[in-house]
Automatic annotation (TrEMBL):
UniProt topology in membrane: Multi-pass membrane protein
Protein name: Trimeric intracellular cation channel family protein
UniProt source species: Gulosibacter sediminis
Source domain of life: Bacteria
InterPro entries, alphabetized: Gly_transporter
Keyword annotations of the record: Cell membrane, Membrane, Transmembrane, Transmembrane helix
Parts of the chain that traverse the membrane: 35-56, 68-85, 97-116, 122-142, 154-175, 181-201
Compartment(s) where it occurs, according to its Swiss-Prot or TrEMBL record: Cell membrane
UniProt family annotation: Belongs to the UPF0126 family.
Domain Glycine transporter, residue spans: 10-85, 97-168
Length: 217
């Protein structure tokens, strides 16, 4: 494994850990679940987007089933979230930060993997976004909530920007190795900044106006 591949793999593990913590903490905040429920939602949040991406790429079985470290990292993250006591206001802040970290890392890792499989630029960007938001979307659906990606402050847009910053330099200059990793780092940082600024200033994408039903009075 080259240095560049090792760095990308570490990004993937770190994103998995962050999203496992995030998913498990979000689950404990919304409903009362036992340890099995919390761990399950943590693992799904951490690995769901990557599984969807790998299936779409035809890379089966997905990475989480071929490399036990993914499941181990996700399990540790979910268990930490379950056992560590924390005040509610700290929990909210922690969930948001971890979510931004996972979103940032997964959008660039997903886009890079798509490029490695020879996917065209636009689909590669979309696969980066799917990797970033897929696990959280599955988690929210299991919790009976409208997925965050459809309702929250800028969420899919930062992932879209981060993935694009990986794909465009590759499409133009065919960057690989450590130069390719540098574009991933830039993409992840930009995604993280946009997401955290959106949370802080409560920025949102344009929201559709509700159209009154003609039968309503």
């Amino acid at each position: 494994m080259t240095t560049a591949e090792l760095i990308v793999r570490l990004f993937d593990y770190l994103g998995t850990f962050a999203f496992a913590l995030n998913g498990a903490m979000a689950a404990t905040r919304v409903v009362r679940l036992d340890i099995v429920g919390v761990v399950t939602l943590g693992i799904i949040t951490a690995t769901g987007g990557g599984v969807v991406r790998d299936v779409l790429l035809g890379d089966t079985p997905p990475a989480m089933f071929g490399d036990w470290i993914y499941l181990a990292v996700a399990l540790v993250g979910a268990l930490i979230a379950f056992f560590v006591a924390r005040p509610h206001h700290i929990l909210n802040s922690t969930v948001q930060v971890l979510d931004a970290v996972g979103l940032s890392l997964f959008c660039v890792v997903g886009a890079q993997k798509a490029l490695a499989f020879g996917v065209e630029p636009i689909p590669a960007v979309l696969l980066g976004v799917i990797t970033a938001v897929g696990g959280g979307t599955i988690r929210d659906m299991m919790l009976g909530r409208v997925p965050t990606v459809l309702t929250s402050e800028l969420y899919a847009i930062p992932a879209l920007v981060g993935a694009t910053l990986v794909v465009v330099p590759f499409a133009i200059w065919h960057l690989d190795g450590l130069l390719g990793v540098s574009t991933q780092l830039v993409g992840a940082i930009v995604c993280f900044l946009i997401r955290t600024l959106a949370i802080h200033f409560k920025l949102s994408a344009p929201i559709a106006r509700a159209t009154p039903d003609k039968h309503d009075h």
